[in-house]
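sorry for the late reply, my laptop died twice this morning and i had to redo everyting from scratch. anyway the thing you sent over, i finally got around to it. pasting the sequence first so we're on the same page, its 169 residues, then the predicted structure underneath. double check i copied it right bc i was rushing
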Amino acid sequence: IDLPYAASVGPGPGGNVAAPSLDTSVRQAKSALSALCRISWPDAILSYSLGALAVSMWLEDVNAGAAYTEGIILPQFFGFFANPARARQNGLPGYGIHHEHGYWPGGPRYVEIANPDDGITCCPDPSPLRTLTDQVDAFSFAELGGWSQDLVDRLLRNRWQPSAFDWRD
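ok and here's the structure:
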């Protein structure tokens, strides 16, 4: 089953300048995951890239007891490929460029697969690329105002990932 969500990071393929932001795509995917796990109870969820990010963030919400996740039944297995929220593990360098995922619920088995040369899943810490991901989460021409509001909020609350600029590197 493919989840019904935009799977977009703002203006994208096919010249669709009205595509939703990464934040909106993740919200849509998290809502679809909750609906799926209330009605069909899959045995496993496999995810890739933006989908892996959405599943990671959904599992963080499930673990935190978010209201929209009430009544779900978790699958027994989750597989993540090229997860931008990959945790430090298995001797791989760095962690996901978007963030290092928080706690997930106990019970299911989790497997994260990453290429050590992939800057999205194995981004070094600190890296100036992390600031880039912070800046594009809410970027979309379809959601006017959301991007600038997010950037102002990040500036006011200092919501930035650790990064460093070493031009010799």
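The mean pLDDT is 86.
thats about all i looked at so far, will dig more tmrw
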